[in-house]
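Hi R.,

As promised on Friday, here is the backbone we talked about, encoded as structure tokens. Could you run it through your design pipeline when you get a chance and send me back a sequence?
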């Protein structure tokens, strides 16, 4: 399904980064390229709080789910190609899995990623696991394939901290990764920061935006030391209110038709099967609020693609505030609002303040 936002896709991230690496290599003056991968930051907020950077807007993929979107950014592949349609979906033997826990195999092709690109250009590819550290799973192995991993630095998955202390954690992680590089070796340093975890519970509050400002300072500081600094995100989040009636409607569908339910956040899907499809659709159409739209999955994922084979047959997509979310969550993502879809590609370099191009 075409997404109604006229921006380049986040699948262009890989090629954009490869261009930055190649341009720097061409000058004969290779710089370290530091990439801050910040989960849950919409374009509008980046434009407001990162004045020291040059920002392009990118459009996330459907669903606007972290596992799907980060893999699309780092591999340059659409979800149909990399085959990870969300968080809860059927594996290749038909069992429902949670992608952040699943350690079995996924079939699919290896088309390389930002780390193999960096290695090919003779940069040392490094991933600071950061807030992915608690999630040992096959998906994380796919995402970070080819990177030298740096562990021991958690940010939003560690104890809560004020914005200044949170900035210091990021700074400390980067310094520690730099100290472990082979001497004289330019690197691609990708660092995962799960701000999404904060936003789910507190929204884009003053702590979050103060931290974003501190990240602008940190990035500008590294740029002034000769680094190229990039920040990107996977999706924004929007206010979401838990509606118990939608939960009981889906529980009824599960019980009455024996359907399994997958997806995550503001997009869920139902494995209806052809024989029950019409009756399931009727039951949903009778009871769903007008702010939740029902779509056939074929509209989003090409039939026969890996993502389609693993996703359910019917998609429930939140369009308003009311849907299903975890206890204590006030913001969520996964659907198709502008805030969820529009994300930043920001670059800080020694030349960016005066608007000139990177050399
Ligand atoms: Zn995310």
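Update: got your reply. Pasting your designed sequence below so it's all in one thread:
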């Amino acid at each position: 399904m075409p997404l109604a936002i006229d921006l380049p896709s986040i699948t262009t991230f890989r090629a954009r980064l490869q261009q930055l690496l190649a341009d720097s290599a061409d000058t004969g003056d290779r710089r370290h390229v530091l990439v801050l991968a910040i989960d849950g930051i919409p374009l509008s907020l980046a434009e407001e709080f990162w004045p020291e950077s040059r920002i392009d807007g990118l459009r996330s993929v459907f669903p606007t789910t972290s596992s799907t979107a980060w893999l699309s950014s780092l591999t340059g592949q659409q979800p149909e190609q990399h085959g990870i349609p969300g968080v809860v979906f059927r594996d290749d033997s038909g069992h429902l899995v949670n992608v952040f826990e699943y350690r079995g195999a996924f079939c699919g092709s290896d088309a390389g990623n930002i780390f193999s690109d960096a290695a090919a250009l003779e940069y040392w590819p490094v991933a600071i696991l950061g807030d992915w550290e608690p999630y040992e799973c096959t998906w994380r192995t796919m995402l970070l394939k080819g990177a030298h991993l740096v562990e021991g630095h958690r940010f939003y998955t560690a104890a809560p901290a004020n914005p200044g202390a949170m900035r210091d954690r990021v700074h400390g992680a980067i310094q520690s990764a730099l100290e472990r590089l082979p001497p004289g070796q330019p690197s691609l340093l990708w660092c995962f920061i799960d701000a999404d975890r904060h936003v789910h519970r507190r929204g884009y509050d003053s702590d979050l935006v103060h931290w974003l400002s501190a990240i602008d300072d940190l990035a500008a500081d590294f740029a002034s030391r000769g680094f190229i600094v990039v920040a990107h995100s996977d999706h924004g989040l929007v206010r979401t209110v838990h509606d118990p009636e939608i939960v009981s409607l889906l529980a009824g569908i599960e019980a009455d038709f024996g359907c399994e339910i997958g997806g995550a956040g503001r997009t869920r899907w139902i494995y209806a099967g052809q024989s029950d499809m019409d009756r399931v659709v009727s039951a949903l159409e009778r009871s769903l609020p007008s702010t939740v739209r029902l779509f056939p999955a074929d509209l989003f994922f090409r039939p026969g693609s890996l993502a389609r084979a693993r996703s359910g047959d019917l998609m429930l997509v939140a369009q308003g505030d009311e849907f299903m979310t975890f206890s204590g969550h006030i913001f969520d993502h996964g659907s198709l609002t502008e805030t969820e879809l529009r994300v930043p590609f920001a670059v800080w370099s020694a030349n960016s303040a005066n608007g000139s191009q990177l050399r």
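One thing I noticed while checking it: The radius of gyration is 21 Å.

Thanks again,
M.
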